[in-house]
Amino acid sequence: xPILENVLSNPDSVVSEKACLCVCEIVESFRYQSKELKExxxxxxxxxxxxxxxxxxxxxxxxxxxxxxxxxxxxxxxTSLTAVMIHEKIGDTIYQILTHHTPMFDGSDSLxxxxxxxxxxxxxxxxxxxxxxxxxxxEMLPQPQPREGCKFSGPYRLLYRSEDRTRESxxxxxxxxxxxxxxxxxxxxxxxxxxLLDVYSSSIDINVRRVDLQCLLKIVSxxxxxxxxLVLEKQELASLLCSIFSQPEFPxxxxxxxxxxxxxxxxxxxxxxxSFYRLGxxxxxxxxxxxxxxxxGLVLAEDEKDTDSKTDKMDxxxxxxxxxxxxxxxxxxxxADRDNDEHDxxxxxxxxxxxxxxxxxxxxxEEDDSEIHNANYGEFRAVRLGDFFAPGSSQSLGFESDxxxxxxxxxxxxxxxxxxxxxxxxxxxDEAAQLLSQLKQITTGLESSQNLDAAxxxxxxxxxxxxxxxxxxxxxxxxxxxxLVSGSEEDVLLARSKFIKIFxxxxxxxxxxILLDHLHEVLGRSEHFEIITSGxxxxxxxxxxxxxxxxxxxKLVAENGIEIPKKLRNLVLSIQAIATFKVVDDFFxxxxxxxxxxxxxxxxxxxxxxxxxxxxxxxxxxxxxKQEQSNDKEDREHSSPFHRWQSKLAASRDEWHLEFSLxxxxxxxxxxxVGAIYKSLEAKPKSQALSxxxxxxxGLSQSSQYRNKSFPNNIWTDTFTINFSKVPGPAPKTExxxxxxxxxxxxFSQLPTSFGNSETTAIAIRxxxxxFMLNSNGEDILQDSLALSYTSQGIPPLHFTKISDSKFxxxxxxxxxxxxxxxxxxxxxxxxxxxxxxxxxxxPFLFPFDTRYTFLQSxxxxxxxxxxxxxxxxxxxxxxxxxxxxxxxxxRLVRQKVRVSRNHILxxxxxxxxxxxxxxxxxxxxxxDEVGTGLGPTLEFYSSVSKEFSLKxxxxxxxxxxxxxxxxxxxxxxxxxxxxxxxxxxxxNSRKVLQLFKTLGTFIARALLDSRIIDINLNPIFFALxxxxxxxxxxxSMVSAVDKQLGNSLLMIERAARKxxxxxxxxxxxxxxxxxxxxxxxxxxxxxxxPGYPDINLIEDGSHIPVTIDNVNEYLDLVVDMTIGSGIxxxxxxxxxxxxxxxxxxxLNAFSPQELAVLCGQGEEDWSYETLYESIKADHGYTKGSxxxxxxxxxxxxxxxxxxxxxxxxxxxxxxxxxxxFRALNPVFTVVWKQNEEPFSxxxxxxxxxxxxxxxxxxxxxxxxxLEERLKTAMYExxxxxxxx
Length: 1285
Hints:
alpha/beta
């Protein structure tokens, strides 16, 4: 160990990592021998292990995970080192590992954080990593013991088996609470409490939530009241407990919340008694107590095999598949199936109350092995069953036990603790009653347009002091919603402007953010959206693609009258569930070819891969190998008779095709096997779909109003009959379609049927939708309202304050959507819950961009790309282990190569898009007379074509901001289509423009489909106007977003006309009116032609019709319409048509116009030194610590925008970074040493690149100045061609 301890400090990262793995293996080997571990692991060694665990150290994910396991082992066994870990800020390290953020503290040691980005990081953290990390926290803190007089042991409070363990726990607590350690412990608990609250909010996995509550209980139990007050300051623990009580389908979580609530009332009654009352927790407790006699609505126990199908949508893998997942505490008293015989013996010893000596106890510990990460399942649990026992008077409970008695016991205990302070509670209960009365008065005011201002002002004043529970039960949210959507158009506009003036103007928007937080809390408590899971229990080792190899059995039965060999009329196939019926069709054709080739032989002689089913006289075959052969047939020499027959049969595809059906329902050729079976079972009554124990195991019980849907277990065990028929003619082509469409409705006034009938959910989502719209268009709404209430004196300007869109993200729904996207069988089969489609298209602001983009890739990019992405995720999983599904034959992506000319690149691009635009293959481009091939030239093609689309000679765009000497169009606010009148649409040039817009749509869709980077600076209004559910009305403010100069001119004309009319109304004669007005509309000498486009008449013979005070409004409306309405409608229509040839344009409704503009290349990029350092890889002579690497990053950081584009063009072939910046570059940005050859020196060489690999060959220059000069020379002189270097 000393040798290894020294090697851990080796500067070579590979050597130190190997030594680290050795230490991990040794520690794990002694994980049951505490005495030996004390001798092996010193405080110095522990310090070095903790240093390697730091995320800033460049160690692999697998090594870091092993280190976490080791830390957990040491935390459990070595009480003396627990204080060392806490002192070395192990809590900060865990926080950084899970959140990818370094915890920042203010002067009072309060944690400051960007909660939104932290939640998103946690949502994408793996279940295994979360449980392992949080279990370290649990191991470090003493285990709470059952309360005196309580007859229950578990699941959160357990008794120790031996006095030694009890004494060790007491010593651990005394050590941590000593005067020396207490400050570090408080800091640790404060950091972990913040993390635990965020973890619970971001995860829907029940095991994660259980260990989370266990850690919280240990924290609140160990600390004294004064320390606990410091730890919980500014922490929303009461709100978390409230959200748990609102989901009664998980008794184990409610029991944990009750345990924490009791401790809080005992230690800090003055803080939490009021919160529990105001948040509705005591109301929920009363509801639990009302169910004491078995009333309806109380879930008594969680089905261990059905945890994934509960209302709260938590993912619990089948306990049958994972014996270690029975609970965080591994309590198995109430389970008949045990891990092994040793567990049974262990329970027998417990029930007999026998005392074991040290050796027997050590052996028991080894047999139990429940706190250590298991190689197969990765379950790293907080405590071990072998350490605990239940006395004869106690009842042992696990998480899956009937917890009704314990729940009621804890609820009564909490109620008694609350009632103990009844005298003190009278004051805040009266205060709460007064607030409720005031809220009802506000509700009445919101229902009246005359009192709306006063009601909004009152709500603004009191909102910091009210809870979401009080808001929803007082009716104020419903009244607020009605005031913002009901009435005439003018009434709604004025009501919304009043809300903006009160809540969203000025510098302080904190109260508006509080209102949003309340709405998210209400939505989290009321929604019951389902997810559909495959029910495959692969444990924590499961990767997103781990279910791809799962097979189902289908029986192919030919319809009567089909002319095929008798032996092929009934076939039983074992086939991958995610395979399509196209695979079945190909296999059947191969099978038919083989049968024809070997006619006269028996079926048993036809192929060594066929096996006879003696019971049914059917064959059980695996078509995967033959399918792979079929996919690769173009790469083989078809020399065998079999291949000759197969080729002939393939040529006969135009003569006939197969049609499949299940229970009379036709199945499309691109439908998956498991999707067809699932839909068939869903269409049947549950009594027919399932039988006996299958119905119990499947998770389709109807005991609760809301259930997640899980694949019935009999999908994986039964054989399903698929009928097929042979139909003359070729198979019908599968047209590109959007398999999932959102409902067409107004998201402000309606709610999709997929969202259920919950009025509370409807109110919360509709209000969030309205507030998001107000936040996006607040300035326009204020301007429009001012136009309605304009006076000659004018109105003081209001300063609208837009808050970050991240405030509208909902972590719970995001976690659910991410969980659903981890189910390849469900996604590929197009059986995702409809609410996900509706929510991403109608309410995209609820989800972060990354999640919505993944949803787009999963649901709109086609089967092949989804399969390829999941298989890549499987190969690149954290464990780094290969699996048998690495080379699945389904969904193989074919690369289609084309060669184009640089001199006629736009013309070539039009041809390529026409020929290959709708192809499902990956498009790769090469240039004539250049040796480059692969990713680099392809990115260069997309970049060059992007630039060609902005040429002035194309006549596609408005040119108001362009430079006269430039050949390219430039727009300060982005490119926007030039208008075309009805008359112009009839000429040839306009038809060419429309064709270019169609090609542009196809081009952008192809770039998204193939994940290519483009550089087209489109105005977001272009995408806003193309949305089917935008609800946008053309206005002058929208014209300003397209052409600021034109918008300002129109606004001035509108104001001048309004002032001219007012003056005319207030004076006695028309002559006096004209004298009082400085500028008359008639004096502007305007006619009915479009400003900037004199050849476009707004009306017939418009160039000869002057604009006057009488027709100025018509003129303004016509200009607005021609600029952003009818004048560009055909261009947008053609763009949508071209786009939809690749995948449905409606899928883009999941993104805002600004996000779509970013996808097309209009976005900001992070070039900070820290980001570059984290993203770069130094190799072949360089390390990240090399002087030249540091200088390179400094030079890159100093680049201006033009130099950045030039560097990226030189380095990657594209002037822009992909979504995600440098971190998202694939392959990774790599810098290697370029050696010099005599007689040249290192400074004589220019850098060179391999764009396909993002590979920079950099000489080790003598100085930073030389580096900068040579790099810029290469950037500007070396781009534009792919040559050998």
